[in-house]
Amino acid sequence: MKKNDSQPGTQIAGLFREINAVFNQQLRKGFKDIDITPPQMMILHYLYKREECKVSDISGEFNLAPSTVSSILDRLEKQGLVVRERLKTDKRVVQILLSEKAVELKDSLKGVVNGTMEKMTQCASREETDQIIDGLKLMKDVLSRNGFDKGE
Predict the structure, then answer these.
(1) Residue 47 in contact with residue 11, Cβ under 8 Å?
(2) Which of 18, 34, 46, 142 shows a CA-CA span of 20 to 30 A to 94?
(3) Side-chain half-sphere CA neighbours of 57 within 13 A
């Protein structure tokens, strides 16, 4: 990316895209043995925090079309990682739940993510990693001050 590209927002967006592409590429390698894709991991991570939810919850959280979420959930269900259950109180509503297999995989998946990040930053000095962390904290703070952390 050229340093003098137009606006700072454009530069930040470009850097996020580039970093995300590298991170996802490395995660795909790490998840290869487990047969999980980064989008599947993203949804599993969401479910680990919530335990149960509806397709619309996931769709809203990640700004994905419900059909896209359903496709990802189809693959996770085929792998035995999620279960779809109709609510007894309202048969129209389908809850998404983690399976026992997904619960057992949680630590392995977390290890892949953490290991991938460690591998990607191993050539950085402690000072450089501190600068990266400080920069990301600053970005998070700026987003929070602008109300973007609340989905606004």
Answers:
(1) no
(2) 34
(3) 15
Phi, psi of 32 (to 5 degrees): -55, -45
Asked if residue 144 is part of any domain, the answer here is yes
Q: Are 132 and 124 in contact (CB under 8 A)?
A: yes
The verdict on residue 2 lying in a domain is no
Domain hosting 146: range is 122-152
Neighbour count for residue 44 (Cβ, 10 Å): 19
Please list the pLDDT of the chain residue by residue as tens digits (152 residues).
Answer: 555 557 988 999 999 999 989 988 988 888 888 888 889 999 999 999 987 799 999 999 999 999 999 999 999 999 999 999 988 888 888 899 999 999 999 998 899 889 999 998 999 999 999 999 999 999 999 988 888 876 55
Of 98, 97, 71, 80, the residue nearest 35 (C-alpha): 80
